[in-house]
Amino acid sequence: MEANLLKHDGEWIIAQVEAMEGDAMPGDPDVWLVEPYLVDYEGLLVPWAPHASEREFNARSSDISIMTTPSKKLLARYIESLE
Fold first, then answer.
1. CATH classification of the domain holding 71
2. How many domains does the chain have?
3. Domain extent for 76
């Protein structure tokens, strides 16, 4: 499984990031955050937008300031959270 660790609006989130199909206008959402989880300072995972019924969210890539590969430990925790 591929997942990314990203900083979105000041929050660290781990999620599967997928580009939206088709052309997006500048400023419009252009990526999907699939099964996003908020990562706290201790590395614990909490569902992002826990009161939403969906688990896929449109976002603007311009709101993502950092995107990197999560540590193996964090990725394992993420996969466990999805099960």
1. 2.30.30.100
2. 1
3. 4-82
Question: Which residue is listed with tokens 């609006």?
Answer: 9
CA dihedral sign, ordered 33, 79, 44, 69: negative
Q: Judge whether 67 and 5 are in contact, CB under 8 Å.
A: yes
pLDDT tens, per residue, the chain with 83 residues:
799 999 998 999 999 999 887 676 666 788 999 999 999 988 899 999 889 999 999 998 889 999 999 999 999 999 999 98
Say what the pTM is: 0.87
DSSP characters over 7-73: EETTEEEEEEEEEPSS---TTS--EEEEEEEEE-TTS-EEESSTT-S-SEEEE-GGGEEEEEPPPHH
3-state secondary structure string, 44-56?
CEEECCCCCCCCE
